[in-house]
Amino acid sequence: MNPSLLPSLAWFARIAHHRSFTRAADEMGVSRAALSQNLKALEKELGTRLLYRTTRDMSLTEAGQQLLDSLQPALRQIAHALHGLDAGGGAASGLVRINTSRLAARALIEPHLHEFQARHPGVRLELVMADGLSNIIADGCDAGIRLGRSLAENVVAVPVSPVLSMAVAGAPAYFERHGVPSTPAELAGHNCINYRYPSSGALHDWDFQDPAEGRHFTQCVSGNLTTNDCASMTNMALQGLGLIQIGDLSIRQHLLDRRLVRVLTDWNHTQAGFHLYTPAREHMPPALRALLDFLVEKRDTIAVL
After folding, report:
1. pLDDT per position as a tens digit, 219-265
2. Do residues 108 and 153 lie in contact, with contact meaning Cβ atoms separated by under 8 Å?
3. Is 154 exposed, middle or buried (0-12, 13-18, 19+ CB in 10 A)?
4. Among the four 4, 115, 211, 286, which has the fewest Cβ within 10 Å?
């Protein structure tokens, strides 16, 4: 086998996993165009089509599905082998201080702490909660976790969550009383719970993407409730008090339990997910490497709803 095909095969597996060039590109930190050209080159090299693509949808060909089924076990074995490597030649140990938003901590770290500590009992973890951007060096932290769109270009960042989708959601009881909006324009007739950014004091304008044109746009909403806390906003929605727009990751369990229901999914806007970032990749402490590898491993187990 030509070894130069290995990166292309790995990229194909990520595209097939997401069924989306955009989401795969965001996850890997490359452009959508680069992924598309890479896949075309792979299909030419293999002499077969791997994906059917339209402007709105994507599906695997029979050959593409066969290739993916063969690749996945091999890629899992490679990931397992890499995970077992330790930069220091022994068990990871020591203190890791992570500056993280509350949402990232609650969704990505806290649910898996028991498993992480069982694997790495020598690692001590300190979570420094801060929803605004922070100078991790000045704060004495080893790394930070923030949304990809907010990161500076000079940091080393690795995605630790899927691409995020801005979910418009409400409780079933709310929709029974007020009906279900079918377009963003119809939100004018609904009670929308506003979120005020703690840092700037500005209200969040809701994000949408036109399903016909693919154009991103924002829309002001109104309602009788405003908060600067995502957990508070979610609790208001759970009580049937109004609609919210929030990253799907933060309400994942409520969506699974059907305590909240998504609407306007055709107008869904996506953005780069959470990244763990550090000032430099060189000489990463084994304890931090262990946490990074663990979060990357868990990333693909998080379903996007």
Report:
1. 999 999 999 988 899 999 999 999 999 988 889 889 999 999 999 99
2. no
3. exposed
4. 4
